[in-house]
Amino acid sequence: MINLRDLLRLASRTFAIGIEQLPAILCDAGTVAYLLLRVSDYLEDNEELPDERKVALLNLWEAILKGNAKSEQLTSQLLDADTSNPDAVVAQHAEEILLKLASLPEEVREIITQHVIHTTQGMARWVARGPQVNDEADMDDYMFEVAGRVGYLLTHLFAWYSTAIRNKKDILLPLSREFGLALQTVNVIRGLRKDYERGWVYIPKKFLAAVNLTAQELFQPENREEAIKVLDMLADKAERHLHAALACVKTLPPWQHRIRLACIFPLMFAIRTLAISRRNTQVFESEAKITREEVKQIVKATTLWGWSNLWLDNYSQKLNIVIEE
């Protein structure tokens, strides 16, 4: 049987860094939740499958999560999947992930299962709808389904684990939704070119209309001046969400340092990624990434000082995003 921690690192070394900071039971829960969501991601993003089959497989995955179908009904259809794609490998091991889910406390299982089901349903709805992002509300709706719900999932897990967090749940839930939207908006910026090449543009049509560009024209070199204006709109939106995400982290008790770190790492990675993407025409040609050295520096610094809200404010500014109070 495959080690799920190895599978987690294969799927995402970046998110694994944060999840592995969590206290033992939360680490197990976070690992299982992340891997289950990666199965959903694989079915949604698979470039080799027609949309109708994606929707059918997402619906089957939903039925499996509800206990109305067997995992073999899905994995038997993925035997020939391209295993150079880490998400395909994760999906092929859905049965082992579900077995680990079954070993978790009942309330934890319920939290994970319900949120993964809701996310999977949202993904199926958007695949069926197609790449029609008309305005910012559409963009937020999509991002909520694929990321904002993850914020809810984690907040409920943290509240299950910690009484102090449970007492702040009503404050944390709306901020956790914004946290998910923050990471996903940066992800949209980072993956502009790759998404365009697979036929998806998550930029609201209203943003494009404001500079009289079509999605295709956005990526043409002669339109860089107008394209930068669209990028500015996206970056400003990301920064607003990041402001709320920082407030979310600062609301977590300082003595829950490992939980805070699990949130701080992806937040600071996103802040730095946005900083190198802002007004950078290169994002229209290739994916924007921070360096491994920057990742190491962020992990080292935040591990030492992430318990301090004042330090987090200052460090956010150091990473080139000024988050105003």
* Alpha carbon gap, first and last residue: 49 Å
| Computed CA radius of gyration, to the nearest angstrom | 19 Å
CATH topology of the largest domain, by name, is: Farnesyl Diphosphate Synthase
Shape: globular
Question: How many domains would you count in the coordinates?
Answer: 2
Q: Provide the CATH superfamily of the largest domain.
A: Farnesyl Diphosphate Synthase
**By helix and strand content, what is the structural category?**
mainly alpha
* Largest sheet, strands/sense/barrel: none
How many helical stretches? 18
The CATH architecture of the largest domain is Orthogonal Bundle
Share of residues in strands: under 5%
What is the CATH C level class of the largest domain, in words? Mainly Alpha
> SSE string, helix = H, strand = E?
HHHHHHHHHHHHHHHHHH
Number of strands: 0
Sequence stretches where pLDDT stays below 50 over 5 or more residues: none
Mean pLDDT: 94
Give the proportion of residues in helices: over 70%
Tell me what the structure shows.
The structure is a single chain. This protein has 325 residues and is mainly α. The protein has helices spanning 4-11, 13-19, 24-45, 51-65, 72-75, 86-92, 94-102, 106-129, 136-161, 163-166, 169-190, 192-197, 205-209, 215-218, 224-251, 257-277, 292-305, 309-318. The N and C termini lie far apart (49 Å).
Q: In brief, what are we looking at here?
A:
By secondary structure, this protein is mainly α. It is 73% helix and 0% strand.
Short descriptors:
single chain, 325 residues, mainly alpha, Farnesyl Diphosphate Synthase, 2 domains, 73% helix
